């Protein structure tokens, strides 16, 4: 059986097919990369920029209160985590009557974030549980509200084993 000769048309079609596959794979990978990890800390940087002055004012008000708020989080062997927050005012008296909430945020994937509801246990101590907490690095965000207004915000990087 005689071999078919290599013509200009065949070479052209092979080049088109090769580059078509390369471009198709690149487009697919680009779409997957953009859809899975946008690389932003906030959903709308523009909106975050507009609230910047309010955040500065809230931070100054928080510093003026001179509260001492400490948090302890522990991940148990079953994957659940226990969060305890203790709040004291400038005079060392327990701060009660606030609505504290916590969030465990994954630095690399917002889809893994977990909310932790904290209930007041008395004496300025607030406790809550989070289920199915994976080991690794997390950002622990604690917010305290009084009468619908945020009066405390803290963000700390923690490592849970």
TrEMBL record:
The keyword Transmembrane applies. Pfam families: FixH. The chain crosses the membrane at residues 12-34. Keywords: Membrane, Transmembrane, Transmembrane helix. InterPro entries: FixH, FixH_proteobacterial. This is FixH family protein. It comes from Bradyrhizobium campsiandrae.
